[in-house]
C-alpha cells in the first residue's frame, strides 16, 4: 500500500522519473531507510548522501558507519561528508546548532548537484514532518509561504514521502524488517519540535478523524495560494524593495500604508530575510527611528521608507588603518571605499561636495588614522563656531540614521582630533581660513 501511494504521489506531483540522476539524503533513521527501500522497489536508481555533524559523539560516527555499510552491501554509490558543528561556531554566526547543521547539509546538497551532475536531491520528510513544521511556523507568526513550507518540490529538492505519515512508515518498516538507526535526540523533549511530535500531533490524530486526508487537502490548497501570492509579490518586490550599491535595501513601505493587505505584502517581502508576520505588523505601528531585527538582518524605520541591512557585528567595521603622507591613496579593508588626498590651490568658492574635505594643511599631523565611531567621540562640527559636540548628539540632531553612524569612516588627525566624518561633516578646526597658506583636498569615494 505504501509503495503504491508513494508511486502515485511521485507521478501526481511530477517529482522525477527513472531517467533522472537522483541522490537520496540518508541519515540512517527509519524514514530515510524506508524511502531507500521504496525507491529500490519502484525501480529507481539512487545514490545516497550522508552528513555527520558529530553532535552525538560516538553515536554520530556509528550512524555514518551504518549508512556506509548499507551502501556497500547494496552496491550503492555513496557520498559521506563530516561537518563538525558546535555551539561556539553557531553563536558566532548568530544561528542555532540545528540551523548551522541545516545550512551545511544544504550546501553539501548544492555541491553534489553541481559537481556530481545529479538532477535532484531527495529527502525523507513525510506528512507528519510537514504538520510539525506547519504548527511551529504558525506559532512563530508565519504567513502563507511559511505555512506551506516543506513543499513536495522546491528548486531541485524533492520530497516523495509527503503523501504518507509516520504510522504508515513504521508499519512498512516493521513488515519488511528494515534496519535503521534510532537518533536518541528524537526522544528528548528539550527540543520544541519534539513536543509537537510527542504530545500535540498524537492528540490531533486522536481527536480529528481523517486528519491525514484533511492535512493533504489543506496543504495542497496552501501550496496553490503560496504560488499565487509569489506571483503577486514579484510585482511588489520590484516596486517596493530596491537594492542599493552598498548592499542595503530600501523598503518603500509607506506606498502601501492604506492597502488592505499591507501586512501580508510586507511579510512576503521580508520573509527571505528572516522576519515574521509580527515584524511586519510592527513596520506600520512602530515609531519613526525604530529598529526591527531578525536573526541576521535589521530594518531601520524612517518616516517615508525603511533601510534593510544584514547584521554584521552591529555593522561596525573594526579595522583601524594608518595613512602616511607618502601615500596619496588609501583603500579601506574589506570595502570598495577609498580615500585620496592632493595638494591644491586655495579654491574660491570652496566646493560644497560632501565627499570632499578642503583642509588647512598646517593643522595636519601625519600619519592620519581611519577608524569608526566610538562611544564618547567628540568633534567641532563645521559651522558651530568652535563649539564641541558629542558625535552621538550630532547624529541625533542631524537625523543621521544608525546605519550611516556606524558605517561612515572617521578621518582622524595624528593628535587624535577628528578631521572629518567622511561624506557628512568637516571639523571646524580644520577648515580653510584667511590665513591658510597650504591646502589639502581629501576625497572619499565608493560609498
Tally of contiguous helical segments: 14
CATH architecture assignment of the largest domain: 3-Layer(aba) Sandwich
Silhouette: elongated
Oligomer: single chain
Give the low-confidence spans. none
CATH H-level homologous superfamily name of the largest domain: HUPs
Arithmetic mean pLDDT: 89
Number of strands: 22
User: What is the terminal-to-terminal distance?
Assistant: 63 Å
CATH topology of the largest domain: Rossmann fold
Largest sheet: 6 strands, mixed
Side-by-side strand order of the widest sheet: 3-2-1-4-6-5
Over all CA atoms, what is the radius of gyration? 29 Å
- Summarize the amount of helix as a percent range: 25-40%
Describe this structure in words.
This protein is an alpha+beta fold. The protein has three domains: 222 residues, Rossmann fold; 67 residues, no CATH class; 125 residues, Phenylalanyl-tRNA Synthetase, Chain B, domain 3 (3-Layer(bba) Sandwich), CATH 3.50.40. It is built from 14 helices and 22 strands. The strands form five sheets. The chain has a six-stranded mixed sheet, sandwiched between helices. A five-stranded antiparallel sheet has the order 7-8-11-10-9. Strands 12-16-19-20-21 form a five-stranded antiparallel sheet, with no helix packed on it. Helix 6 packs across helix 9 and helix 11 crosses helix 12. The longest helix is centred in the middle third of the chain and has 30 residues. The mean pLDDT is 89.
Amino acid at each position: 500500500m505504501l509503495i503504491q501511494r508513494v508511486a502515485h504521489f511521485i507521478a501526481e506531483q511530477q517529482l522525477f522519473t527513472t531517467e533522472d540522476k537522483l541522490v537520496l539524503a540518508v541519515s540512517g533513521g527509519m524514514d530515510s531507510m524506508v524511502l531507500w527501500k521504496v525507491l529500490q522497489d519502484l525501480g529507481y536508481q539512487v545514490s545516497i548522501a550522508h552528513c555527520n555533524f558529530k553532535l552525538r559523539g560516538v553515536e554520530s560516527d556509528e550512524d555514518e558507519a551504518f549508512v556506509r555499510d548499507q551502501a556497500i552491501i547494496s552496491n550503492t554509490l555513496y557520498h559521506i561528508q563530516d561537518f563538525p558543528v558546535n555551539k561556539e561556531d553557531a553563536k558566532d554566526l548568530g544561528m542555532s546548532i540545528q540551523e548551522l547543521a541545516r545550512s551545511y547539509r544544504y550546501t553539501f546538497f548544492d555541491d553534489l548537484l553541481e559537481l556530481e551532475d545529479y538532477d535532484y536531491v531527495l529527502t525523507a520528510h513525510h506528512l507528519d514532518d510537514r504538520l510539525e513544521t506547519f504548527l511551529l511556523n504558525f506559532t512563530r507568526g508565519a504567513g502563507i509561504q511559511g505555512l506551506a513550507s516543506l513543499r513536495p518540490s522546491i528548486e531541485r529538492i524533492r520530497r516523495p514521502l509527503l503523501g504518507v505519515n509516520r504510522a504508515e512508515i513504521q508499519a512498512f518498516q516493521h513488515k519488511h524488517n528494515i534496519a535503521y538507526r534510532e537518533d536518541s535526540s528524537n526522544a528528548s523533549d528539550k527540543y520544541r519540535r519534539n513536543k509537537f511530535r510527542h504530545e500535540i500531533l498524537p492528540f490531533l490524530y486522536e481527536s480529528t478523524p481523517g486528519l491525514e486526508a484533511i492535512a493533504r487537502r489543506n496543504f495542497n490548497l496552501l501550496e496553490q495560494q503560496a504560488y499565487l501570492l509569489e506571483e503577486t509579490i514579484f510585482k511588489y518586490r520590484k516596486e517596493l524593495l530596491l537594492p542599493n550599491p552598498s548592499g542595503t535595501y530600501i523598503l518603500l513601505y509607506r506606498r502601501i500604508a492604506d492597502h488592505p493587505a499591507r501586512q501580508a505584502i510586507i511579510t512576503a517581502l521580508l520573509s527571505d530575510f528572516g522576519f515574521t508576520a509580527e515584524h511586519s505588523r510592527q513596520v506600520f505601528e512602530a515609531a519613526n527611528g525604530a529598529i526591527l531585527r531578525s536573526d541576521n538582518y535589521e530594518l531601520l524605520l524612517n518616516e517615508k521608507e525603511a533601510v534593510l541591512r544584514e547584521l554584521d557585528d552591529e555593522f561596525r567595521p573594526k579595522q583601524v588603518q594608518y595613512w602616511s603622507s607618502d601615500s596619496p591613496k588609501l583603500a579601506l579593508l574589506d570595502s570598495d571605499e577609498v580615500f585620496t588626498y592632493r595638494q591644491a590651490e586655495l579654491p574660491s568658492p570652496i566646493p560644497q561636495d560632501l565627499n570632499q574635505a578642503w583642509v588647512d594643511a598646517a593643522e595636519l599631523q601625519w600619519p592620519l588614522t581611519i577608524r569608526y565611531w566610538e562611544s564618547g567621540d567628540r568633534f567641532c562640527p563645521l559651522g558651530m563656531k568652535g563649539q564641541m559636540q558629542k558625535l552621538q548628539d550630532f547624529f541625533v540632531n542631524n537625523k543621521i540614521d544608525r546605519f550611516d553612524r556606524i558605517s561612515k569612516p572617521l578621518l582622524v588627525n595624528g593628535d587624535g582630533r577628528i578631521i572629518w566624518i567622511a561624506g557628512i561633516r568637516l571639523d571646524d578646526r580644520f577648515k580653510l581660513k584667511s590665513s591658510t597658506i597650504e591646502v589639502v583636498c581629501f576625497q572619499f569615494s565608493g560609498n
